[in-house]
Automatic annotation (TrEMBL):
Needed co-factor(s): pyridoxal 5'-phosphate
Source organism per UniProt: Ornithinimicrobium pekingense
Record carries keyword Manganese: no
Keyword field: Aminotransferase, Pyridoxal phosphate, Transferase
Protein name, entry field: Aminotransferase DegT
Family: Belongs to the DegT/DnrJ/EryC1 family.
Source organism superkingdom: Bacteria
Keyword Transferase carried by entry: yes
Length: 378
């Protein structure tokens, strides 16, 4: 049998040719391809401005900086998320305050958010977990009257939709990931999007050491102007090599989402007849790209989550444990991160697993995965 991986990026000859063109141009650092990728991404996501970065984590960091979050502030974050969501507030000297999530979507709700708010809350990072769109309008109803900024962590959500618009289109600032586990990949890389021109302009400077003149602009001139460093900045740049891949991937996105949703529908139909397994699905307010097809293993199933992962591995199928509970990680275990009840987070972390799902997954491969679920459910 051939191993079925949990995820595989869709990369082909078009990406190879695009990278070759950049190499032949002699300009491989941040330059014209990055600018083109930013314009195309902003148009695709129906948002005013896009700023390419070295990762989603660096985009989250910049998002908090341009939103004015700093030392002494509290930032509410879901514990049910990759560790970067909690790390970003720590980078700016703020305190991450953990909130619980909805049992169905794995996302923040107004109720779980309000339970974690403090007098010092300056921002909230709302995650579209596994590509499932968070109900942003409901969260804004809580935050806007209090002057609390919402940063949308859309790391997994490219291709998802919220109230008939692309995810992130309604947010003040969003951060995106192009890691190979995501639908659109540049190897490593990220993006910040915002409708605020001044926030985008500052993020562009901050990602490039806060230089007054970008490296790309300086290199187009024979006698480059002297640059100034306007504040303490960072080296969070994307390369033109990565952006060239991203542009090809962006053209593939609709096909990728369509196929992933077809596979997810097949999974859901198969799992519907099995007692004790609950698959992720679309929320009432949007559609998910199924970046992660996760399943909750309930007490009615003969095996627990870890036992089912072993059965899958024995069949050469690579599953993964569900999303981590960040508050359990050693990096945060001894810190003051609030007092909100996190019981749903812990339940989902202990009971969920991620099944294989990728664009070129075949129907036969999906049937192999489902067969393991059925045998294990007897």
């Amino acid at each position: 049998m051939t191993r079925i991986n949990v995820m595989q990026p869709w990369l082909g000859e078009e990406e190879v040719l695009a990278v070759g063109e950049v190499i032949r141009s002699g300009w491989v650092a941040q330059g014209p391809r990055v600018a083109e990728f930013e314009r195309s991404f902003a148009q695709r996501q129906d948002v005013g401005y896009a700023v390419a970065t070295s990762s989603c984590t660096t985009a989250l960091h910049l998002a908090l900086v341009v939103a004015g979050v700093g030392a002494g502030d509290d930032v509410v974050v879901p514990s049910f998320s990759f560790i970067a969501t909690a790390n970003a507030p720590t980078y700016v000297g703020a305190r991450p305050v953990f909130a619980d999530v909805d049992a169905e979507t794995g996302n923040l709700t107004p109720e779980t958010l309000e339970a974690a708010l403090t007098e010092r809350t300056r921002a909230v990072i709302a995650v579209d977990q596994g590509g499932v769109p968070v109900d942003l309008d409901a969260l804004r109803a809580v935050c806007d009257p209090r002057g609390i900024v919402i940063v949308e962590d859309a790391a997994c959500a490219i291709g998802s939709a919220y109230r008939d618009r692309p995810v992130g289109a309604r947010a003040d600032v969003s951060a995106w990931s192009f890691h190979p586990r995501k639908l659109l990949t540049t190897g490593e890389g990220g993006m910040l999007t915002t409708p605020h021109e001044e926030w985008a302009a500052r993020a562009r400077q901050l990602r490039e050491h806060s230089m007054s003149v970008s490296a790309a602009a300086r290199h187009t001139q024979v006698l480059a102007p002297a640059e100034k460093y306007l504040e303490v900045g960072f080296n969070y740049r994307m390369t033109d090599l990565q952006a060239a891949v991203g542009l090809v991937q962006l053209d593939r996105l609709d096909q990728i989402v369509k196929r992933r949703r077809e596979l997810a529908t097949a999974y859901q139909a198969a799992i519907a007849g099995l007692t004790g397994l609950r698959p992720v699905s679309d929320p009432a307010w949007g559609t998910t790209n199924y970046q992660s097809f996760w399943v909750e293993v309930l007490p009615g199933y003969p095996l627990d989550r870890d036992g089912l992962l072993v059965r899958l591995a024995e069949a050469d199928v690579s599953g993964r444990r569900g999303i981590m509970a960040a508050h359990r990680q050693p990096a945060y275990a001894g810190r003051d991160t609030g007092t909100a009840d996190l019981s749903v987070t812990e339940r989902l972390t202990d009971r969920t697993l991620i099944l294989p799902l990728f664009h070129h997954m075949t129907d036969d491969e999906l049937d192999r995965v489902v067969a393991v679920l059925r045998r294990s459910g007897r």
